[in-house]
Each structure stands twice: as structure tokens, then as C-alpha cells.
Write a structure and sequence with these properties.
Blueprint: E1 24-26, H1 32-42, E2 46-52, E3 58-63, E4 70-75, E5 88-92, H2 95-104, E6 113-116, E7 119-122, E8 133-138, E9 144-149
Parallel strand pairs: 1-4, 5-9
Antiparallel strand pairs: 2-3, 3-4, 6-7, 6-8, 8-9
Length: 154
């Protein structure tokens, strides 16, 4: 089955039982040590790997608490410009609590917002934040992250 654009339909599969998992996303940074400090000390990511593979290549793998997907920063890996990655998302079960936690760790993070008719607005008393509650921050290079509330943090 295919879409109108001729692309395969994501809901159909010729390969029954094939599992595709996103495990690592490369995040382009200019200063690996500074970025590693931000991700571990301010965001609380676990530093899984920090290896100087060669003179030109260093790989640092960092995993958010509770996540099966990691980010990798380093040298000699990505052709992307530092700060050019946008739209990375962390999922939480309580956006207010997560925002307060990150702000308390020194992360410059936006207030919680909801998307109402496609535009963000400040939250109001009684807003259902599941699927709609977001807060935004950037790493030291300007890579853009969103924190989104989902039911049970799924």
C-alpha cells in the first residue's frame, strides 16, 4: 500500500515482525565538554560513553532518565552546524513538575504553554495538558528542545 505521493504507507509492512527502534540522535555542538556538562548537570542525562576514537573523532553518548533513545555529541561525526537541530522532544507525565525541575537545575525554559487552534498560549486553570502542554528550551548551541506532557509519560 502507498500514499498519494507514492510513498509506502507506514501502517503496512511487507516484513512482518520487523522492529525499527530509534536509539540515537546526533546533536551538533561546538564545544563537546560544555555541551556534556549542560546535558548531564542541568538536564540530568546519564553519560553512557565518552570515547576519543581518534585524533579527529570523539563520541559522547548521553541518555535522558527513563529513555530508550540517547543523544550523541562529539567531534568528527556530523556535518550539521552546531545549533541547527530543532524539534527534539522529551515526553513527561507532568509538564508543570518537569518544567519546575529543569528550571531549578538552571535550564532557561519557557513557561508551560498549550497549542490552541495551532497557536501557543499561556495555560489557564482547567486546561487539559495531555498532548497539548509544552515547554521549550535550547542547549548552549541553540539546538531546540520541547518538553511535552503525555498521559503516563508515554
Amino acid at each position: 500500500m502507498s500514499t498519494d505521493a507514492g510513498e509506502p504507507d507506514a501502517t503496512s509492512s511487507d516484513d512482518e515482525g520487523i522492529e525499527l527502534r530509534l536509539e540515537v540522535v546526533v546533536v551538533p555542538v561546538s564545544d563537546v565538554d560544555h555541551a556534556k556538562t549542560f546535558y548531564t548537570e542541568k538536564l540530568g542525562f546519564n553519560a553512557d560513553v565518552d570515547q576519543q576514537v581518534s585524533e579527529e573523532m570523539r563520541v559522547v553518548q548521553l541518555t535522558p532518565p527513563g529513555s530508550a533513545c540517547s543523544v550523541t555529541i562529539g567531534t568528527g561525526m556530523a556535518a550539521m552546524e552546531p545549533g541547527s537541530l530543532k524539534g527534539l522532544q522529551l515526553i513527561v507525565s507532568d509538564i508543570r513538575k518537569a518544567r519546575a525541575h529543569l528550571a531549578g537545575r538552571g535550564v532557561e525554559i519557557s513557561e508551560v504553554q498549550v497549542f490552541d487552534s495551532g497557536s501557543p498560549r499561556p495555560i489557564r486553570e482547567g486546561d487539559d495538558l495531555d498532548f497539548a502542554g509544552f515547554a521549550f528550551f535550547k542547549d548552549p548551541d541553540g539546538n531546540g528542545w520541547a518538553v511535552q506532557q503525555m498521559p503516563d509519560g508515554r
